[in-house]
Amino acid sequence: MAAALGACFLVLLVLVALRWHPLITVDGGISRTTHRWAVGDHAVTRVFRVLTDWVWDPTTMRLVCAAAAVWLVWRRAAWWTALWLAITCAVATLVQQAVKSAVGRPRPVWPDPVDSAHYAAFPSGHAMTATVVCGLLLWLLHRHGPRPALWRAAVTAAVVSVLGVGVTRVWLGVHWPSDVLGGWLAGAALVAAAVTVHEWPRAGGTRPSRGRWSPGA
C-alpha cells in the first residue's frame, strides 16, 4: 500500500513539475470556479477561513498528535508508540517542506483574493498533515478495539477533516486541486509506511499486539 500510494504521488509530482498541460487546465478550471464562489459567498468563505486557520491548521493537527503521544505515555506507558507517533509527524513535516522547496510551484494569484498563504504550493501542507494525523490516530484507535459507536464517530470525523481541509484550501484560492491531491497521497503513503515500521518484528522477533495495547506496546 505504501509503495502504491508513493508511486501515485511521484507520478503526480512529475506531472506538476513538468507543468503537464491537461493537469494545469483542470487545476485552472476548478480553481477559477471555486474562487468565483468564494468571492460571491462571504458567509461560507468566513466559515472556511476559521476551519482552515484554526480547526484543521497543521499546528492544531500536530498539537492533537502531541496530546495523543502524551496520553499514550501517561495512560499506557507506550513509549515506543508515542515516539513512533512523534517521529512520523516530524518526518511528514520535513518531507512536505523538502518537496515544496524542490518543486517550487507558485500558488494561485487572484486580483481579488479572499485569503493568503506563504511558501510553495505543492503539496498542500494542510491536506498532508491532516491525512497523516487522522490516519495515524485512526489506526491506533482501531488497535485499541473501540466500541462501534466510537469507531464510527472517529472515522466520520477523520473523513470530514481530511476531505474538508482540502475543500477549504481550494475554495480559499491558496492551492490548486492537484496540490491537495498530492498532500492526500503523500500523507496516506507516509501513514502506510509508518504502520509497516510499527508492525515490523522487533527485538526477539515479536510484533506489537494487534488487540488491546500491552503496557509496552
TrEMBL record:
Domain Phosphatidic acid phosphatase type 2/haloperoxidase intervals: 82-195
Keyword Transmembrane helix: yes
Transmembrane segment boundaries: 54-74, 81-99, 119-141, 153-174, 180-200
Key words of the record: Membrane, Transmembrane, Transmembrane helix
Listed Pfam families: PAP2
PANTHER family per UniProt: AT30094P (PTHR14969:SF13), SPHINGOSINE-1-PHOSPHATE PHOSPHOHYDROLASE (PTHR14969)
Protein name: Phosphatase PAP2 family protein
